[in-house]
User: Which sequence fits this backbone?
């Protein structure tokens, strides 16, 4: 066999191997002799593959003439540098010589096309796809950019071009809505964004850039009255002032306070009193200072539901002279420090207990009959719950809770933290929806 033939065979094999490696299926693309080199591109040492794209076009894309009898001629090659998925953490490029063609009929010139990269684009389709896949993960856009050696803007462009926003359907709203807010991006008009999810599935329904009442009213009025009538429960934060628009927009909806927020209100009130008690202890008194440290260290024991206190297991508690004591003994000691604190503790525990057993009558009887001498601050915080009597009763009567939404909000916090640098709300929203799997890949 002549040597040239062997060489050609070898070269074909190498070409096939590289195509496999780079996942190129286009039969018109092949690699020439010495296809891999190391070059410095944008200041980074990179792998550069050199390939050729050529074929015989069937017709002219400009005038539509069928390519018969050499009516389309090969012109020259056009060199382009296409960025690929990094290989072994090293930026990798394809220097592609694309065949140029010239149509004799209309004199138009055009380049050979491949499915591997879009026309006038310098980023390969597999790289774009890899970025699109990573956008679903909990990684910041900046990190994605760094991972693939592309700019933030490129990642944003992939986010825009690969994902279609879920289509607006005015005929559907979940029957049980959970609403909440979170801090938005700089371009938001209102300070806070608004999030709506389905109470039953915990799935995000939509994210709005503005939580002001008139904006929310306008948003929900885009849904048909029939859809809005089907909404039976709206669960929200205690401090939220959404009741006015809710009544206008959802004629049949009951408002519930998120149970998590009621518990939070109780524990915050009691915790405040604990700190107040601590600060009243004399600084000059060594014994009082010991109690100060104990109240400071064992705050969890005080806030715990009483039934979760351990009465039997002996443990060494550092501030108890390394004696072996039970958690209940620690609690007993903490409650002897101050009689006011003890009184509030009893009330706090009763409220927790009645709330947990969904005994709303017992819960509000306890609030209505608070002892006169109870700590003022604590009392005020507890009495605040009376303002939301109906909504709290609803929360206890029906089993919808913002628990899932809190989870979603934490997720958004995570997304926002990792996705630091969102300049526009639109991208923030799209990213969250992509991450939640609510956007179709185009
Ligand atoms: Zn033509």
Assistant:
């Amino acid at each position: 066999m002549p040597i040239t033939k062997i060489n050609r065979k070898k070269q074909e094999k190498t070409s096939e191997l590289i195509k496999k490696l780079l996942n190129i299926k286009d039969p018109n693309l092949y690699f020439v002799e010495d296809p891999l080199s190391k070059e410095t591109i944008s200041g980074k040492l990179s792998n550069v593959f050199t390939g050729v794209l050529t074929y015989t076009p069937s017709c002219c894309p400009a005038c539509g003439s069928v390519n018969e009898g050499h009516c389309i001629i090969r012109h020259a090659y056009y060199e382009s540098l296409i960025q690929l998925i990094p290989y072994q953490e090293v930026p990798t490029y394809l220097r592609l010589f694309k065949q140029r063609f010239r149509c004799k009929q209309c004199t138009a010139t055009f380049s050979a096309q491949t499915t591997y990269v879009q026309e006038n684009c310098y980023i390969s389709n597999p790289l774009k796809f890899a970025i699109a896949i990573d956008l679903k993960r909990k990684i910041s856009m900046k990190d994605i950019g760094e991972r693939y050696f592309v700019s933030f803007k490129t990642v944003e462009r992939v986010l825009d071009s690969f994902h279609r926003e879920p289509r607006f359907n005015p005929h559907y709203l979940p029957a049980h809505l959970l609403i909440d807010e979170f801090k938005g991006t700089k371009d938001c008009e209102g300070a806070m964004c608004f999030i709506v999810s389905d109470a039953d599935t915990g799935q995000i329904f939509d994210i709005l850039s503005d939580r002001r009442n008139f904006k929310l009213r306008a948003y929900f009025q885009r849904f048909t009255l029939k859809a809005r009538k089907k909404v039976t429960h709206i669960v929200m934060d205690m401090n939220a002032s959404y009741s006015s628009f809710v009544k206008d927009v959802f004629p049949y909806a009951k408002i519930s306070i998120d149970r998590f927020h009621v518990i939070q209100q109780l524990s915050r009130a009691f915790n405040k009193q604990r700190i107040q008690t601590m600060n009243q202890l004399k600084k000059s008194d060594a014994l009082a200072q010991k109690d100060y440290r104990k109240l400071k260290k064992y705050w969890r024991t005080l806030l715990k539901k009483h039934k979760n206190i351990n009465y039997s297991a002996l443990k060494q508690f550092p501030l108890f002279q390394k004696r072996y004591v039970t958690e209940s003994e620690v609690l007993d000691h903490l409650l002897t420090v101050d009689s006011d604190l003890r009184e509030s503790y009893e009330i706090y525990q009763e409220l927790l207990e009645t709330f947990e057993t969904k005994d709303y009558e017992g819960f509000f009887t306890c609030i209505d009959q608070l002892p006169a001498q109870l700590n003022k601050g604590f009392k005020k915080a507890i009495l605040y719950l009376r303002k939301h009597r109906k909504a709290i009763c609803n929360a206890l009567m029906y089993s919808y809770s913002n628990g899932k939404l809190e989870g979603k909000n934490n997720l958004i916090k995570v997304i926002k933290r990792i996705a630091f640098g969102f300049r526009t709300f639109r991208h923030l929203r799209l990213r969250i929806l992509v991450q939640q799997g609510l956007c179709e890949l185009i």
The mean pLDDT is 87. The chain has four domains: 3-122, 132-164, 176-258+404-441, 260-397.
